[in-house]
Amino acid sequence: MNLTDTHTHIYEAEFADDIDEVISRLEENHITTVLLPNIDSTSIDNMHALADRRPDLFRCMMGLHPTNVNENYRTELEIVESWLNKRSYCAIGEIGIDLYWEQTHKEQQIIAFETQIELALKHNLPIDIHCRNAFEETANSIRKFKGKGVRGVFHSFTGTIEEAESIFELGDFLLGINGIVTFKKAEIAHTLESIPLEKIVLETDAPYLAPVPHRGKRNETSYLLHIAEKIASIKGVTLEEVAKTTTNNATRAFSL
Predict the structure, then answer these.
(1) Mean pLDDT, to the nearest integer, of 236-248?
(2) What are residue 196's DSSP bridge partners?
(3) CB atoms within 10 A of CB 254
(4) CA quadruple 113, 135, 188, 242: dihedral positive or negative?
(5) What pairs with residue 50 in β-bridges?
(6) How far apart are CA 64 and CA 190, in angstroms?
(7) Element counts in the chain: helices (H) and strands (E)
(8) CA trace torsion 140, 63, 122, 251 (10° rounding)
(9) Are 188 and 200 in contact (CB under 8 A)?
């Protein structure tokens, strides 16, 4: 049985003191591929360093996170593009629009998102989308590229079946499901009853959003197994089927 964590930040400082143990635990829990999304120019070195330690296990994305878009976003985008010309990546990410905390740089976020979609098309890569309190804005940006082959994953999807169907109408997109699905009264658990496994990939978003029974603690990639077990319960299938299907989905989406 093989599992793929399609979105985790275990290169961050929270893991500096025990990264070897973190890697051992994820391998013990059948996780054989781990995708690392970038945040901004300050996270690149740590991300690359971890990936270079175990190229058999880790794959990197390159992108500028929407909450890190500010007045210097054009410089940040230049750095993103320069790395895309120097190194191989599995996706452009983590990119998108986030209007949850504040909207000061809304227009810059939209420009940065659309610029990075253009980069994804140029380099024939999928996009890994962060969308929070900005579904219409995100969808509108993607629609501008309709018919051009935009594809990827809506990371940390927690919405309704109607929102899921809207995403699938935008193009070849999958839904990234993380520890929120294990939370009591999580709407996504109900939504997943109507979504085929072929439209789902697994993720942890570590160190955030630890699943039950670790909720409230530092998340890590090894906890992906709890997410897979919960989805198996929701769908009424075996853990092995969830692992096989979601790993195949990730392999196809990210050309792993």
Answers:
(1) 98
(2) none
(3) 24
(4) negative
(5) none
(6) 32
(7) 9, 8
(8) -90
(9) no
